[in-house]
Amino acid sequence: MDFSSKLLEQAVDEMSQLPGIGKRTALRLVLHLLKQPASQTQDLSNALLDLRNNIKLCRNCFNISDTEICEICANPSRNAEIVCVVEDIRDVMAIENTGQYRGHYHVLGGKISPMDGVGPSQLTIKPLIEKVQAGKVEEIIFALSSTLEGDTTNFYIFKQLENTPVKTSTIARGISVGDELEYADEVTLGRSITNRVPFENSMKDQ
Ligand SMILES: [Zn+2]
Question: Which GO terms describe its molecular function (predicted)?
Fold first, then answer.
């Protein structure tokens, strides 16, 4: 792409670093911003910088949060003894949208994926195990997407918890293999949490 302006080229280059944004889309977005009042670009930049500089991970569940302890963990009406294990905040949002779940979460920050160089130590598995070993958890619900990586991660955690009295279950698979949680509709997802099955049973199915 040949630019007549270095400033334009620089903005397009930065924008096209984002996933799913090619150079053409980046150019369209940048030109759109140029047509809008300067305050819009300023507000966008401020929001992104503010997010980047001030966002925290909840010390308890590792969900993205504005505060040291997120709103879900800080809510006394939620049951801290049930912990739903998810990949990231999008899964938390999807499950919260169902209105069917009143427990806590544990956000892993990804899934075990040797192909992508992601091992257990890069995820928040250790704090989860420690939470269970401290006797604070009665039930763990695995709610990772049913991909190879999701299953590998579930099984790894399950093995780590084998010598603890914690109950392990997995969300019922109304969700077909490979579906990501965030795309599951609320009714199906809500039902799959309510109708969760013991984790051992889910392994026998495979
Ligand atoms: Zn939290």
Answer: DNA binding; zinc ion binding
